Amino acid sequence: MTSRPSNFFTIRTNCVAAGGALRRESTVGGGSVKLTIIPPSGNVVLGESRTFICKVENGEADSILWLVSNEDEVEDEVEGTNHIQTEVSEYQSKLEIINADPEVNGKYWCVASLENGKEQRKSITISVIEDPKFENILPIQEFEEGSDAAVLCHVVGIPDPTVSWKYHQEIVQSGRYSILSNGTLVIKNIQASDAGSYQCIGSIKKRSVRKSLSITVKVKYIPTFEPSEPQVLYSWLGNPVNISCTVRAYPEPNITWSRKSLDLGDIGVISKTSTEIRSVLQVRVSSPEEFSVYQCTATNAQGSASHTVQLREGGFPGIPRDLSAEPRSTTVQVSFSPPGEDSGIPVLGYWLEWRQNSSWKWNRTRVNNEYYLVTGLQPYTPYQFRVSAINGKGDGNYSDIVSARTLSIREPDRPSVSTRRESTGNNIRIFFKDVENRGSPVLRHFIRYKEVEADEWHSVTVNNSRSDSYLLDNLNWGSVYELEIEAENSNGRSVTSYLNVSVPLRSPAAAVGRKPSVGTGGVVGIILVIFVALLVVVDVVCYRTRRCGILMCLSTSLRERSDVERKGLDHEVDELSDRTTSFTDRGPPLPTVSKHC
Description:
Blueprint: E1 10-14, E2 34-38, E3 43-45, E4 50-57, E5 61-68, E6 92-98, E7 106-114, E8 119-135, E9 140-144, E10 149-151, E11 154-158, E12 162-167, E13 169-170, E14 177-179, E15 185-187, E16 196-204, E17 209-225, E18 232-235, E19 241-250, E20 254-259, E21 262-265, E22 269-272, E23 276-283, E24 293-300, E25 303-313, E26 321-327, E27 332-337, E28 347-356, E29 363-367, E30 371-374, E31 382-391, E32 402-405, E33 416-421, E34 428-433, E35 444-451, E36 458-463, E37 469-472, E38 480-489, E39 492-493, E40 497-502, H1 508-512, H2 520-545, H3 550-564, H4 570-585
Parallel strand pairs: 3-8, 9-17, 18-25
Antiparallel strand pairs: 1-6, 2-4, 4-6, 5-7, 7-8, 8-11, 10-15, 12-13, 12-16, 14-15, 16-17, 17-19, 19-23, 20-21, 20-24, 22-23, 24-25, 26-27, 27-30, 28-29, 28-31, 31-32, 33-34, 34-37, 35-36, 35-38, 38-39, 38-40
């Protein structure tokens, strides 16, 4: 073999001969002798060292040597250095790869010469491998907005890796994105929104190896201002106000403020991120001239942009609308709507005032919402209410006065009660009717009931919000019940209403169970039976008295038939004649019967 420099790799072979010189024969055989190479995998990482041992098992060999794929004998290539390690044994030979390089790739044969003159061979394929590795990559890459950006990513490995990219999700080659054969990602017409962290991924599918590296892409663009920033602000003399602007730009811009033609200088930055800066100008508003137009200007290497804010003098708040007062006995619920006019300054709260009609002094409280419950009032007393709004500048005008009279304090009157028996007979529904509640609504009714002879009372509470009646069910048949009903409002319970109700005796049908009722079909059947019975009775009477009817028709038909068969049935005719004679002797003479009845 052609010798190679030691800084690339070293192939070293130790061959041990047992009794005789090395022999090479092409014959493959050797009985039960077996060769084993350890380790069985020939993968060697680039630049690393690895040793392969060929062992003879189940016998002995005269010699063991290593051949490369072209049948050349492998010889020590760096003799006399510390890269060579020697181990002597009559059963094995060692192949050592030092400082592995792709040039050592190939198929290697371990050949054992046996005592019978034959050879035994065992092969292994050595492959130098390397996981994906990123070389000469800039972690931050910058591009001009609108240009075609080429994001570099050089990935090496053995075998050559496949390169893919990910930005939020895997990048698919399209009109804007393309991946070149060297792994470079090309973004056409790159925009500020394309800036961010990209993942360059190197993969060797054959060995299921995958490595990734983050690359930050920055886009240089002219400053832009957040559209959410207000363009008009309100304040008043003596009240400081902060005017701010939020700028997005790369590289970082310089921000200055001005009022009309007056340069206010470089104002301190309040907050800053990699692409966003917020600058705040504080105006003391000590003179009317400071109510003006302010301009925020941001400048970087790409250009400059401005954002204007107009500072106006705000006014007092408007008058609250739709004031109303809902009275209770000792409280009044007041509600209203915010002012309809916009003074430019937010409403901070409200002054709510009230007084008795006969008093000149107003009671006052500050409220934060558009509703408030005024408590501690006198019952059945007229009151007046008004409200005004508050903002940073001061108090607004009062609304129109609204009057309300509180309600009297007392429990409800005795409830009016009525009952109704339900269809089952032993269920009774109780109805409540409150005659007077003195302005405080009835909240619930309390019912107590028992049989007159019983000692134990049953109690039920009925909420008025759910029902104005209650059903007493499954009462005992034939019993009399005592009822006591009371109404209750927020001031207490009413006087008790008393009532007795009777449950009827249960019918015999109900005692043994309900009898089956006769339906429409049964009634029709009964009528038909009665009709047929009457028809038979009438026909018999007609036959006996007038010699007509259905029976007479049947008798005549039989007589005519007997005449036809008279020759064979003379004795039957005589017998029938005798019976007819005896029958006519018992009644009036037979009338002449028509052939057709």
